[in-house]
Amino acid sequence: MIIKQVRLSQQAKDQLSRLKGKTGIKNWNILCRWALTYSLGEKTLPTDTLLAADSNLEMSWYTFGGDYYEIYEALVKAWCVTMGLPTDKEAVSKYFRLNLERGIAHLCGTGFIKSLDDLLKLAVED
Hints:
Layout: E1 5-7, H1 10-23, H2 28-40, E2 58-60, H3 61-65, H4 69-82, H5 89-109, H6 116-124
Antiparallel strand pairs: 1-2
Helix pairs in contact: 1-5, 2-5, 4-5
């Protein structure tokens, strides 16, 4: 398990709230999974910044990943390997959080996502 609890910044929570409204997806964890995998698909490192965990949006690692929590951990570790980063628990946890926050910001900031269909189109793009 990468981390026990996933706690987001207030900014990320606000961005997720907007995405919930646009997509109709009601569960935070589902949107967070989309955000993580979107960010992991980027070819760059997320900005290495200190992340505030200042919102009341918190979920367990098992809630985040659902039945597939092990796959999400493996995806983050594989991304770390691809990027030439260490794969110890601390590094994987750090880059999980950085990618999650970056993914949320990108999904909210694209201006492209106005509906669930727009989000789904991301899954089939090159």
